[in-house]
Design a protein that fits this description.
Radius of gyration: 16 Å
Largest sheet: 8 strands, antiparallel
Distance between the termini: 45 Å
CATH topology: Jelly Rolls
Structural class: mainly beta
Number of strands: 13
Oligomer: single chain
Shape: globular
Length: about 220
């Protein structure tokens, strides 16, 4: 039976006041089409659709894969909202180097986790929870909203300095390549991945983790 991602009907593209909050930002999603995006290592998009002002993944559709921006970014501030289904798992991955020798975006890119903290199976480690710098640094506070509710992200990367904010609270801050980064990396699953986080400039990806997920109000400002 095909799953139905409830609660996405009649959602405006922008919530009240969002226009003022995104002044100086460029939209990465027009609210109606997948223009500006493609499936990783492909030229088209099939499993992701624009539905009621959100980019939504259908995990039952053909042509699965992470959705990536056509353009690459190095220093930027990204704003978006995400909503995950019950038990769901996804992510926002950046610094992605698109090359056939890397069959997944996470082999090169760094991830801000998107998760149903309550019922997802990947909720056993603090650095796997929603808003974490995945498998590296746990969020300083659990501010994620439950499955089926929208969460607001501000993700900033400037000369390798990362800050993650979720629902108005800064929850991760770290300098890529710094002492803390090196210590955390040495304890992570990525410690022997030669190309992980090696590309300062890359694509931004929305992860297909075989769960229903949606993203809206996607804006970027280059720094």
């Amino acid at each position: 039976m095909k799953k139905i991602f409830l609660g996405l009907m009649a959602i405006p593209v922008l919530h009240f006041g969002a226009m003022a909050q995104t002044k100086g930002y460029k939209p990465l999603f027009d609210g109606k089409t997948t223009t500006g995006w493609h499936t990783y290592l492909k030229t088209n998009v099939t499993a992701w659709k624009a539905v009621d002002g959100a980019l939504q993944l259908d995990p039952n559709a053909e042509g699965q894969g992470d959705l990536v921006t056509n353009d690459e970014y190095e220093n930027f501030e990204l704003k978006l909202d995400w909503k995950i289904s019950e038990t769901g798992n996804s992510g926002i991955i950046f610094g992605v180097h698109e090359d056939p020798k890397f069959n997944e975006t996470y082999l090169t890119g760094v991830e801000m986790q998107v998760l149903d903290n309550k019922k997802a199976t990947d909720n056993k480690k603090a650095n796997h929870l929603a808003g974490s710098l995945y498998d590296l640094k746990a969020p300083s506070a659990d501010v994620a909203k439950p499955a089926g509710e929208w969460n607001a992200v501000v993700l900033r990367k400037k000369d390798g300095h990362l800050t993650f904010s979720l629902n108005g609270t800064k929850i991760v801050e770290i300098q890529m390549g710094g002492d803390e980064w090196k210590e955390l990396l040495a304890k992570s699953k990525f410690k022997d991945w030669a190309d992980f986080a090696k590309y300062p400039k890359g694509h931004i990806a929305l992860q297909d983790h075989n769960h229903e997920v949606a993203f809206r109000n996607i804006y970027i400002k280059q720094l």
